[in-house]
Design goal:
Blueprint (H helix, E strand, L loop, with lengths): L4 H9 L9 H11 L28 E4 H7 L4 H8 L3 E4 L9 E4 L2 E3 L9 E5 L2 E2 L18 E8 L12 E7 L7 E9 L3 E11 L4 E12 L8 E13 L3 E15 L4 E2 H6 L9 E19 L2 E21 L13 H9 L20 H9 L3 H4 L2 E25 L2 E27 L5 E7 L1 E5 L5 E3 L2 E19 L4 E18 L12 E19 L2 E12 L3 H4 L23 E14 L3 E20 L6 E22 L2 E14 L3 E4 L16 E4 L11 E11 L3 E10 L2 E2 L20 E2 L2 E11 L4 E8 L7 E8 L24 E7 L4 E9 L1
Parallel strand pairs: 5-8
Antiparallel strand pairs: 1-7, 2-3, 3-4, 5-6, 7-8, 9-10, 9-40, 10-11, 11-12, 12-13, 13-15, 14-39, 15-16, 16-17, 17-18, 18-19, 18-22, 20-21, 22-23, 23-24, 24-25, 25-26, 26-27, 27-28, 28-29, 29-32, 30-31, 32-33, 33-36, 34-35, 36-37, 37-40, 38-39
Helix pairs in contact: 6-7
């Protein structure tokens, strides 16, 4: 099969195992044509083209085009990944459609600080993982601007840091690929409304341009869960026969409310209810990216990019104060009543207030603020605010070339990259009291170190951390056509990173200070073979290594002498080791005539020095530390094709994500903990072979589309995911039982069906509709064990169980990330 150099370069960098099986014919074709493909390979992200035949990519690389993304009706890129790509699933921990944890083979790209990040994400070669925490904010990626996406499997070293389980590459549109003007409007359930506009064009002088913008608003299907998304994107470029230069500008200004998990009994009473509120995230982002490529000769392509990005994030979260759950918070004492009266308050109880007649207590909270005494124990609510500012910029350059060396044809890519960033993170916590509508009314008292709780420990949840991160790297790959059927690929990347943290609250280093200077460096190799014994069938085998450095938030909570509770506090920073992932992969792929394509593969990835939040033996707090080893292994099967009017596809994944080392972790909400009595604080022991929480064993996706000529299409898609253990059940043995432990400690399996259709009324005007969760199933995408502050009737309840040796046990429950109920969306699109 005739291929391009792009395919060979993609093979070198889409895992070593993805070596191109037809590189010999590739080299011959390119040598005779005297022409290199005009493809930019910037930011260490060489990519296969979306329209490239799949049998040229022997690895399980998955691609999608703008047309496929639009036809799916997906709200954003994360929704498309969940519905359409194999081995991808979503944990909706935030319960906002733009804030999911997207996982591939058990590795995650999440917008939440503290979540272990294992996927790298790029836009036009620019890294989208943010400097502080490696998080990925899906709401900042404009869906309509995406021309293609490519999901690369494994710990490919050439995609840089954080590529433990895979890399997602997004390419944006330009005026040549997307000419013309279109406007799209949609309405849907829960007052969803959106407008999108795009325009692209080019001229004979080589200029091309593209611009798009959207505005999305909805009330959300849960109580008090609105979203407001505003995005603009523009690209201006110039090209001739040998050179292409483009500058991209994008801006987003979003307000997202994601009210998180809900306790099982409250969810059963009201599926749309929230535990506490608000949980608001405001994201502002501006990016600039200059890319260029130049065909320097018949066998040499030069490319590079320079970028700048600024992100400003505010969060405002209303939470329960867990420290109040074992306190007497109902009846104000004599001194407290006197303080309330002196301050002009009336209506507070003189006696007899208890959990039965005071479901939402506030008077002891207010009185302790007036007395400057113990609001940390008597206030049952807390408002947590954070502000993160990030600026990052960098540059990269590389070349791609063909050469004959020692009688073999080589496709070589090599380059270097430099990235630097500055981030500041500030967090404060203000006490308050819970209201019947689950909101928090603040009182004039902050957890800033001025309060001493009942055991003499200062209560200080403030964080004021600034950090500078720098990474430079060099990388290279070589795809060598050993003969017509066999290709060897070798590649590697050397990264050197520095992290410089400075604490504005406790500067100077030492106990309790976040100050620290950290350096990490490593060379990650990859090697693989690809074999194509006959037309339409190929096989591959490969090994590769990737790494990620500890983030500032992990380095800020790594001292066993100063344990902390995230995300409310950080303390101390002994050095952590890099996480190293080593991946083996093998598979075969083939084609049944002109009807269907199939593939089957196996993989095993082992994380060494994985980072885990570990319990402190005495205090019940915890800290981040390097965990010995974890393993992600599985089998992937895929079939897709087209027969007449039918377009169909099936993906199945068997995934086994397990711990492979023994470790002690906090397990206070787990029935198997070593607590002195049920409901008291305790720890659990992880043993090798236990499944990692939130990772299902089975993922099945299927779709069928009926295309009725040019006028209409109808599609039906199903996503099925098996059960997964809850966070807090890392030892996999929690059982519901007694008054202290409610819930199974896992989320059940589920299957969700979606229906969509489109009708072309005129050559320019089309209408479309989509029904999500067609059968209105109630399901959960994630679960977590934790102490609950409410009784079965939804009233706040402190000291819910009798004391044991002077300590009050908690009622612990399973909290769920409930899936959205059935919704209907309709829209219209007009192309000028």
């Amino acid at each position: 099969m005739k291929l391009t150099l792009l395919a060979a370069a993609a093979m070198a960098l889409c895992q070593a195992h993805a070596a191109e099986p037809a590189a010999a014919s590739l080299a011959a074709n390119l040598a005779t044509s005297g022409d290199l493909p005009t493809v930019i390979i910037t930011g260490s992200m060489p990519l296969p083209t979306v329209d490239q035949p799949r049998d040229t990519l022997a690895a399980p690389v998955q691609t999608a085009s703008a047309q496929q993304i639009a036809r799916s009706g997906a709200l954003d890129i994360s929704a498309f990944l969940r519905r359409n790509l194999g081995s991808v699933y979503v944990n909706e921990v935030q319960n906002n459609p733009f804030q999911p944890d997207v996982s591939y083979r058990g590795y995650t790209a999440s917008p939440l600080l503290g979540t272990p990040q294992g996927l790298s994400v790029y836009l036009d070669g620019m890294r989208l993982n943010q400097p502080f925490g490696d998080v990925v904010s899906w709401d900042l990626i404009p869906r309509m601007a995406i021309e293609s996406l490519t999901l690369m499997p494994g710990s490919n070293p050439l995609f840089g840091l954080n590529t433990l389980g895979g890399a997602l590459a997004l390419q944006t549109k330009d005026g040549r690929s997307s000419p013309g003007t279109a406007i799209e409007a949609r309405l849907g359930s829960d007052k969803r409304r959106a407008v999108e506009v795009e325009h692209g064009g080019s001229n004979a002088q080589g200029w091309h341009w593209y611009v798009t913008g959207n505005r999305f608003k909805e009330d959300g299907w849960r109580d008090d869960s609105p979203s407001d998304v505003r995005q603009v994107f523009g690209k201006l470029g110039w090209s001739d026969a040998r050179t292409d230069i483009a500058v991209t500008v994008a801006h987003a200004d979003n307000a997202l409310t994601g009210n998180g998990l809900q306790e099982q009994r409250l969810l059963a009473r009201d599926y749309r209810s929230v535990y506490t509120k608000p949980d608001l995230t405001q994201n502002k982002s501006t990016l600039l990216n200059l890319t260029g490529k130049h065909q320097a000769g018949a066998a040499l392509l030069l490319s590079g990019n320079v970028y700048y990005r600024k992100i400003d994030t505010h969060t405002f979260n209303g939470d329960l104060n867990d420290e109040s759950l074992d306190q007497s918070v109902y009846q104000p004492g004599v001194a407290e009543r006197a303080a309330l009266a002196a301050a002009g308050y009336t209506g507070f109880p003189a006696s007899g207030a208890n959990a039965a007649n005071t479901p939402f207590p506030k008077w002891r909270c207010i009185a302790n603020v007036l007395l400057n005494d113990e609001p940390a124990e008597k206030c049952n609510g807390m408002l947590n605010r954070s502000h993160t500012r990030q600026e990052n910029y960098g540059l990269s350059g590389q070349f791609t070339a063909l050469a004959d060396v020692a009688g073999a044809r080589h496709a070589v890519t090599a380059g270097a990259a430099y990235d630097t960033s500055h981030a500041t993170f500030r967090q404060t916590s203000q006490f308050g009291y819970l209201n019947p509508d689950r909101s928090i009314t603040p009182v004039n008292f902050f957890a800033d170190g001025t309060e001493i709780d009942d055991d003499g420990t200062p209560v200080d949840n403030r964080v004021d951390l600034s950090g500078r991160m720098r990474t430079w790297s060099v990388y290279a790959s070589d795809s060598i056509a050993l003969n017509q059927d066999l290709t060897l690929t070798v590649s590697g990347r050397y990264n050197r990173s520095t992290v410089r943290n400075r604490d504005a609250i406790t500067p100077g280093g030492g106990s309790g200070s976040l100050d620290g200077d950290h350096r990490f460096s490593r060379f990650n190799p990859a090697i693989g073979l690809a074999y194509a014994p006959a037309a339409g069938i190929s096989a591959y085998l490969g090994y590769n290594e990737g790494s990620r450095t500890p983030t500032a938030i992990e380095l800020g909570c790594a001292d066993p002498e100063n344990p902390c509770r995230l995300p409310n506090a950080m303390a101390g920073d002994p050095p952590l080791k890099q996480v190293i992932t080593k991946t083996w992969e093998a598979g075969v792929r083939g084609q049944w005539g002109e009807v269907a394509r199939w593939s089957a593969g196996v993989f095993r990835a082992e994380n060494h020095d994985d980072i885990l939040f570990v319990a402190d033996n005495q205090a019940g707090f915890g800290y981040f530390k390097n965990f010995g080893k974890t393993r992600h292994q599985g089998v992937e099967l895929a079939l897709d094709g087209k027969a007449g009017m039918l377009d169909f596809g099936v993906n199945y994944t068997w995934l086994q994500a397990t711990y492979q080392s023994r470790e002690l972790v906090n397990g206070s909400a787990n029935s198997s903990s070593d607590a002195e009595a049920p409901g008291l604080e305790g720890n659990i022991v992880i043993t090798p072979g236990k499944r990692i929480p939130l990772t299902p064993s089975h993922i099945l996706k299927a779709h069928v589309d009926i295309q009725g000529g040019r006028d209409w299409t109808v599609g039906l898609a199903m996503t099925a995911v098996s059960s997964a253990y809850a966070r807090g059940n890392e030892n996999n043995v929690h059982q519901a039982g007694g008054p202290a432990y409610l819930g199974a400690g896992k989320s059940g399996g589920y299957a969700v069906v979606e229906l969509n259709g489109k009708y072309q009324l005129t050559p320019r005007l089309s209408v479309f509709a989509q029904v999500n969760n067609l059968f209105d199933r109630k399901y959960a995408t994630a679960a977590q064990l934790g102490a609950t502050g409410f009784d079965a009737n939804g009233n706040f309840a402190a000291r819910p169980l009798p004391a044991v040796n002077g300590e009050y046990p908690m009622v612990n429950a399973t909290f769920y990330a409930a899936g959205a109920p059935r919704s209907v969306n309709v829209g219209v699109r007009y192309a000028f």
